[in-house]
UniProtKB/TrEMBL annotation:
Residues 38-69 form the 4Fe-4S ferredoxin-type domain. Pfam families: Fer4_20, Pyr_redox_2. Keywords: Amino-acid biosynthesis, Glutamate biosynthesis, Oxidoreductase. It comes from the Bacteria. This is Glutamate synthase subunit beta. Pathway: Amino-acid biosynthesis. InterPro entries: 4Fe4S_Fe-S-bd (IPR017896), DPD_II (IPR028261), FAD/NAD-bd_sf (IPR036188), FAD/NAD-binding_dom (IPR023753), Glut_synth_ssu1 (IPR006005), Glutamate_Synthase (IPR051394), Helical_ferredxn (IPR009051). SUPFAM superfamilies: alpha-helical ferredoxin, Nucleotide-binding domain. It comes from Streptomyces endophyticus. The lineage of its organism: Bacteria, Bacillati, Actinomycetota, Actinomycetes, Kitasatosporales.
Length: 487
């Protein structure tokens, strides 16, 4: 145990963010560089090393949290990163982007602020990179088997790295021009600088993983033909079909899916554009959707110089504290969150439904008409007399995703079965109805969290390894039917 009295002697301290007026002028990560290291040993000491560590259940990766908290407290960074990497291929991703269901399940969180597990995690891995402890793990021998991984998001990368380290020859196919999937083009630079992805890709290349960018399986190459070329295939193409908003005026110019808008600012940072083709500069911006993707749109609009930013959410405003009756510990509660993007300004409107859009004579959106909504007989309906309009010269739709892309031919060319929710169906080994074709991540689970994507990639890799060799020593933290710890 780190410090038996740590949780009694120290309160919760989190990463320090840079001043708002400074950070909205650049695209660097919002946190003060190096601010965690002076406090992280004390924060790690707050871990109680519980007899039953429920943080393990909150985290689908089964991270060995009390163990690496203990090492971080003692500042044994090499041992801490070894324990961290034992269950997580990319802790620098989860440490920055995961909403931390592990902290919601922290035993200390029953009556005190939970341990800052995410901050400890990211401190350990950043130290590991700085100290040179992260090295390629090149397999001792090759199996002679080949695997194609379709998609280079966290699920695809985790599966590829696990299978490469098991000795298989792995090629990753990515339809975008750079590796990383939503990590690359869905996450703004201010939440995670892309240098973190780049050095992991270099590590994977050194281990033997091959990458093929600008290749969309189903359009550029035939999926069935790909299956014949490889001994196994992992479909990790994500759930990339955005949920639409079919209301009058949807066809007006200036209304875009979040995933049409966000990647362009990332491409500016990559040097592809001087200015993004879609920009919020000088415009009244409305973001429809109150989740993390919506918050990413808010922060991006601030940095592009929006005249105003308004975020709409159709559901009521959540509580700021856990409701122990409806969302008891250790479940993952739906709470009111103030992200770094919300700290930077803008208005948030809850219980708001969009009725229609209004444009100018040139077909450009100018106004968004909304009404308050309420539940009546279990359905959301507009409240009479609450209709109003707000200025909207750029609208981003950030209402989630409905499933994997079926228009590109990948699903039909493989002949994959879908489940009732439109996700690719799979068995207990993550294998589809087509022998040798496996599915991992959002393509099989539906829209989910980065930590679940990595867990899916690791688990699917074990299924592939067993399919190819008959046995596997790879770690499989979850089953396809496992779900988040919620009510």
């Amino acid at each position: 145990m780190a410090d038996p009295k740590g949780f009694l002697n120290h309160g919760r301290e989190v990463a320090q963010t840079r001043p708002v007026d400074e950070r909205v002028k650049d695209w660097n990560e919002v946190y003060v560089p190096g601010s965690l290291l002076p406090i992280i040993s004390k924060q790690a000491s707050r871990c109680m090393d519980c007899g039953i560590p429920f943080c393990h259940n909150g985290c689908p990766l089964g991270n060995l949290i009390p163990e690496w908290n203990d090492y971080a407290y003692r500042e044994d960074w090499s041992a801490a990163q070894e324990r961290l990497h034992a269950t997580n291929n990319f802790p620098e991703f989860t440490g920055r982007l995961c909403p931390a269901p592990c902290e919601s399940a922290c035993v200390l969180g029953i009556n005190q602020p939970a341990v800052t597990i995410k901050n400890v995690e990211v401190s350990i891995i950043d130290q590991a990179w700085d100290r040179g402890d992260v090295a390629p793990q090149i397999p001792e021998r090759l199996s002679g088997k080949t695997v194609a991984v379709i998609g280079s998001g966290p699920a695809g990368l985790a599966a590829a790295q696990q299978l490469t380290r098991a000795g298989h020859t792995v090629a990753v196919y990515e339809r975008a021009d750079r590796i990383g999937g939503l990590l690359r083009y869905g996450i703004p630079e201010f939440k995670m600088e892309k240098r973190h992805i780049n050095r992991r890709i270099e590590q994977m290349r050194a281990e033997g993983t091959k990458f093929r960018t600008g290749v969309e399986v189903g359009r550029d190459i035939d999926a069935a033909g790909l299956r014949k070329r490889y001994d196994a295939v992992v479909v990790a193409a994500g759930a990339t079909v955005s949920r639409d908003l079919p209301v009058p005026g949807r066809e007006l110019n200036g209304i875009h899916y979040a995933m049409e808008y966000l990647p362009l600012s990332n491409k500016v940072q990559e040097g592809d554009y001087v200015q993004p083709p879609i920009t919020a500069e000088g415009k009244h911006v409305v973001v429809i959707g109150g989740g993390d993707t919506g918050a990413d749109c808010v922060g991006t609009a601030h940095r592009q110089g929006a005249a105003s930013v308004t975020q709409l959410e159709i559901m009521p405003q959540p509580n700021e504290e856990r409701n122990t009756t409806t969302q008891p510990w250790p479940t993952f509660p739906m709470l009111y969150k103030v992200t770094s993007a919300h700290e930077e300004g803008g208005e948030r409107i809850y219980s708001a439904g969009t009725t229609h859009f209004e444009g100018d004579e040139d077909g450009n959106v100018q106004w968004l008409h909304l009404a308050e909504v309420e539940f009546v007989d279990g359905k959301l309906v507009n409240k009479p007399g609450t209709e109003r309009k707000i200025p909207a010269q750029l609208v981003t739709l950030a209402m989630g995703f409905t499933g994997t892309d079926q228009e590109n031919g990948l699903v039909s060319q493989f002949g994959l079965d879908l489940d009732a929710r439109g996700n690719v169906d799979r068995d207990a080994e993550f294998q589809t109805n087509v022998p040798g074709v496996f599915v991992a991540g959002d393509a099989g689970r539906g829209q989910s969290l980065i930590v679940w994507a990595i867990a899916e990639g690791r688990s699917a890799a074990r299924g592939v390894d067993r399919f190819l060799t008959g046995v596997s020593e790879l770690h499989a933290p979850i089953r396809p039917t496992d779900r988040s710890l919620t009510v």
